[in-house]
Fold this protein.
Amino acid sequence: MRRFAAVALREIAERRFVLVAAAAAAVIPFLVPLLPGVPGDQGTTARSITALILSSALGLGGSLLVGASVVGRELAEKRLSFHFSRPLSAPVIWGGKLVGGLTLVLAAELLVYVPASLASGVFPGLSGMSVETGVVWAILLSAIPLFFLAWLGSVALRSRSPWLVVDLFLLVAIPAVAFLVARRFLRYGGWVDATTAAATATGVLLGILLAATFAQAVVGRTDARRGHGAQSLTLWGLLVAALAASALWAERAIDPGVERLVRASATPAGSGGDWVFVDGSARSDGGGSTTYLLNLKTRQSVLVPLTWTATVSADGSRAAYVSGSPFSSREIALDALDLATGESVSLDLPEWPDGVDLTPDGRRLAVVSQGICRVVELPSLRLLASARVPSATWSYEPHFLSPDLVRLHPRRSRIAIRDKSTSLPLPLEDPVVAELQVAGKSIRTVVRYPVTAIPVPPRTGKGVDSGPVYHLLASPDLSRVLLMGFGSAHTARLLDATSGRVLASFEGSEAAGHPTGIFLSDGRAVVAEAAPEGRRLTLLSPDGSLLVRIALPAGTARTRFGFEPARGLLGLGLSRNEQTERLDGSIADLESGQLRPLGCLPLPRSFWSDNATAPPPGSPATRLAWDETWRIVLYDPATGTQTPLTRGQPRRK
């Protein structure tokens, strides 16, 4: 221990001018408030900022100066042999120089920082600064890794060995690979606490730097080239191992497999009924998100970037999904993936799209983004046609009627759209349905729905009146439309899609709630509405005539529609409380008008995406549900058999 202390004290004594400079610099923060131009009430803040800047500058500058000279300069000047001529072991010399150099650097920082902090009365922080104390200490302690880097860099440059070429190559290659790993991790929904990640990365880096300096001192001794080789092998070997381990962990985190997902949901991807879009987390705390396209028949799964928009062509040949850059909210891309070969092409978008559609054979793609509908050929991405949507106050989704004809269907009214010239809110317009002729690059108006003529009663209850919000749900064959009002609008109407004629209408109220509905795969419509005795389901024929009414259990406050697990059956989620997430699964027999409980909760239809998707009754996508442990299962409505697809875990209360 005495030999170790002697080496450390010698390092401090040789460079004591650093402490003298720090002592002189410690006076400067107390003089700054006396300068003209510094307001009297800002003196404490000025002193604190000056102390932090000076201590950081001394720490960073001192770490470079001391770290570069503690071994590197002595090797170049042949003075390191003085230590090895003594009865001192290499680890003692290494440890003494390390502790002595770091003590000198950190002591210089504290000589400037501590007096100002004590004078502020908030030690160990600084008064008048909004920066957290932990951040301040992190800034000051950043001198430690810089000290190690200066040590290693000085040895490498002074050795003039061929290892320097390897150093320069790996100095660029390893950060580049680390960036690619981090980008993939974030793009595919990986998540980790930033503080934990930073602390772990810093700890690993310090350990590697410590090992590299140790290898240089112990193996190299007084030979600069041998020491450089030892430190390079240790440094880059450990960094490559750490990077490989991180990449494996990241890949496992973002691609755990569908069967390992704990908190997951699924929606049909396209109208075929085989492919579904699954998103969830494999972590028990729900952190991060993993998204897959899953074929329920073949169990083929395809990992896709974090997205909320994904669809598969009817023949299952191609998928399209939207993803954003993890580093910029303005970088949006629409990827078209060949599910057989795995090859994909990417189309840049100005913003997140309102709707995406593929032709049944997956050879053409239509996308509406920033008010423009574009039709492109796949996989060449050749632009075939483009057109502006008819109204700026409605979001539109494209539907291929044929490869050469695209229906532009208004999906929902936009909220708070403003005129760019006046910055005033644009008044809601009647939605216009249009068709884009791809070959002729022309667009024609099909029909205008008189939405603005619907009376909206003034709000009488408490809360902010958001105004009316409308959703237009198209039938699978696009021949009819369900108009549903939300917000202050409490109405639902079945319209003829080509003429706008009202086929059936339902009215709600603030007390009774909003009537909602969906289309069945055969074109019939089901509406959940208030009734004198409670709530009920109303089944309508395609022409709007009443077929059957099914009374829902007494006290039902909320109805959530699922899909058709078999022809004539409809999955439901029913709740007795408008505010609770708890729903009970049920099956409605639309032919007999009977309602029976189900041992699981059918997965819901999504109104915000892919409105016209109605998979064939009985197809795998229609038989997805959550069981009592909230795992996704594939159930058989006839036998009640449940085949689990993901792991189960009760949700937090």
